[in-house]
Amino acid sequence: MACSNCFNGCVDIISDQCVRYTGIDVPALGILTGDPLSRVEESLTTFLVSALNGTGIKPYVDPAIICALVNANLPACGELTIVDLITGLIKSVCALQEQIDVIIVDVAAIDATLATLNSAYTTSCLTGTITNTSTHSVLQALITNFCALVASLPNTYVALVDVDQIIANWTAANNASTLISNKMVPYVAVPYFGPTSYFNGDGAGTGDWINIYLCNGLNGAPDLRGRTVVGCTAMLGTKPLDPEVASPVYTLRSTTGVNNYTLISTEMPSHTHAADTTATNAPHFHSIFNTDASAEHDPTVIATNYPTVIHNVEAGYSYRITGSITSPTLGRTSTSTPAITAHTVNTATGGDQPHPNIQPSMGAYYIIYIP
């Protein structure tokens, strides 16, 4: 059926094509007075879809109130839609949560650290009112004590670079005190190469040298004349002695050793000497028997009285007399053992003189301060 009073003489039965919008203009939706109903529907549908997906909702937010964290998660240009804003907010909240999670872990660590810091301190020499389980209290006491120490330093300590000048100033201000003992450590013997005019006849110091003594064995001073000093082996401490110094034992003021020493035979190195031997035959003679009443005659006598020949005929020194004008009988000498003397001479060496037992030395007086 054809409509009556239709827009633009429309004879179709499709209402949205035949009906015209007669309301006010709606620029935000793109609707104007006189638009066909189909266009109005299209504009409304487009708006509703964009509203539903958020692309069509573009709220105005003052940029001045958007923080840096949210702004970093928004598009860099163009109009901001509700989707852009919600997305930026979600990303910002997630980033904040991640930071919070880290902070929670850090806070737990901090709590553990604080628990350690707030455990009981040993305050030792710190003075003042101190709560030893409070880090703040202990730290404040430390600062207070340190400040007191700093305040006392100028009156108690001096800088190393100022020591020499302070000593010089003190010396200049105390010229009246010129005692040598002020410059010496008690009971320490030191070599002295100066004159002896500061000492009296027994080696005691006089004037500024009072209580200073020559180490000559008098006035309670050790006697170091002609002696060197060696550390006592009988001393405080339990560390074993080195083997090479374990003997002899040195006690305080004990003495030993000589300047010159003569070796005895047991101290000499083992050695031999060459010896010359001379053998000397002792004078002796042999006796023989003849026919004259078996008389015993010296061979020289027999040789004179009888033209005989005497010779050895067998072992044991037997002799026979032959050619005698008196027809002598057989004779035999008596057996004799000759005495032979052997004299061995060892040439004497050495002079039995002591040898020097002195290291290179230099003479000095030793002086000691005895309070």
What is the secondary structure topology, with strand pairs?
Blueprint: H1 15-18, H2 37-53, H3 68-71, H4 82-117, H5 135-156, H6 163-173, E1 190-192, E2 212-214, E3 260-261, E4 276-281, E5 288-289, E6 296-297, H7 299-305, E7 340-345, E8 355-356, E9 365-369
Antiparallel strand pairs: 1-9, 2-9, 3-8, 4-7, 5-6
- What Rg, in angstroms, do the CA atoms define? 69 Å
Query: Roughly what percent helix?
Result: 25-40%
Question: What percentage of amino acids are in beta strands?
Answer: 5-15%
Shape: elongated
Distance between the termini: 148 Å
Spatial sequence of strands, sheet with the most strands: 1-9-2
Number of helices in the DSSP assignment: 7
Question: How many strands, what sense, and barrel or not for the largest sheet?
Answer: 3 strands, antiparallel
Give the helix/strand class: alpha+beta
Multimeric state: single chain
Low-confidence stretches: 284-334
- Overall pLDDT confidence: 77
How many beta-strand runs? 9
Order of SSEs: HHHHHHEEEEEEHEEE
